[in-house]
Amino acid sequence: MANNFFGITDIGRQRDNNEDAFIAQKAGDGNFIIACVIDGVGGYAGGEVAADITRGCILEQLSYIAGDVVPLMVNTIVMANQRIYDKKLGNKQLENMACVLTLAIIDIQNNQFYYAHVGDTRLYLLRDNSLIKISKDHSFVGFLEDSGRLSEEAAMDHPKRNEISKALGFNPQIAKDPDFVETGHSPFLPGDILLVCSDGLTDLVDKSLIKAILTGSGSLQDKGEKLIDAANSKGGKDNVTVVLAQNDKAPRQHSATRPAAATAKVVEEIIDPLAQPKLPDGPSTVPVKQKSNRGTMVILFILLGAAIAGFLWQFWLNYQLKQPEVKVTAVPVKVKNAEEIKLQDTINRLKGNVLIISDTDFKQPIVLSDTLHIQKDSLYIKAKGGIIFKADSAYSGPGISLAGSSKYIVLDSVAFEGFHVAIATQNDALVLKHVIFNGCAVPVQTSYAFPPNKYISGRLFGGMFKIDTLIKTAK
């Protein structure tokens, strides 16, 4: 399998730097191909740094691949996330950096591929002239498109298309969320092509044109370069990165005999699950004008032909039922709503230490399907108009989580409703002012970090919080 993978990245037509990175190479033992696209986020320097950290971590951890591939991929992504987060803590200029990625590992010998995905980079499978999108976009607009609520054309032009709900580098606790990394696996049959790409391609080039290029003539390098050219010809608004891998093994052939002396060859066929099966033509009939020996012979030949056609039809059905299907096993993805995505992004990008939340900016209540993470050293969140945080009916995690590095976080005039744990904090960072908890099993859950091998003395006082004399009614 020579020349069966290729990667290329381009700065585009409107950017001054390239925050994308990719991997297109074999693992150390030569039995696996690594195909990965990483899209950096966070400004001129930050995105490049996050993408480079992730690329280095993947090459380090996947230099030798053995055992269960999917857990190995997930652990590698968790490690890359922690390295990005640690780098941010040591450099204020990189505090907004993050990255998204799609990682595919191809088992050459066993005709399988595995993938792990976070964000809005994409994985496609081309099989028998059908282009199938495997990964799901971790964004609100991507969810609308994947669920059929928004057309591809409308999604490509949507003003919030690039607002993502998941990325590496913002939350150090992703290992505790089994749904954070989307994973799956599928057969990789002879003739199949995998495409891994950044949104710089799919924001500008639609699926039909991508398919036309991939099914056209030329090598993988030719096709990769044509995809880059297609994005740049439509404006090249972002960095564009493409990685291609192909199973270039020859399709297997099987032979079958029929009652006649001639031998028919049946070529293995890959089924498109979306297409209707094409039925073979039935036996032709010859009108009989008059009774004669010749007519009798014609009828006998017709009956013999029908019998042979019926035998071949039954053989074809049995053969098709044995063919492998494109079966992708994916971990369900949590999809955040627009309000919580907006609020998390506002917290992450806040330059100062005071955040005013108004009910004119956020619909009421703010339904949380995932934890809001506060990573800052100090932050004062003041609500105006009675802000209510409400747990989604299917969510059982914390409403708000404070990082271990937080020193002074104030929540003023907000309400929590229906959470198992409303606020998860560490040490003594949390300060509450006029906060209401309704239907919360654990309003505040506090953990303390102590150095190892040291004697600890002290006491947790119960008077740190009190019931306010001023009763505030949440709207």
TrEMBL record:
Domain of life from the UniProt record: Bacteria
Transmembrane segments: 298-317
Keywords from the UniProt entry: Membrane, Transmembrane, Transmembrane helix
Keyword flag Membrane: yes
InterPro entries per record: PPM-type-like_dom_sf, PPM-type_phosphatase-like_dom
Domain PPM-type phosphatase: start-end pairs: 5-247
CDD domains xref list: PP2Cc
Designated name of the protein: Serine/threonine protein phosphatase PrpC
Organism in which the protein naturally occurs: Mucilaginibacter pocheonensis
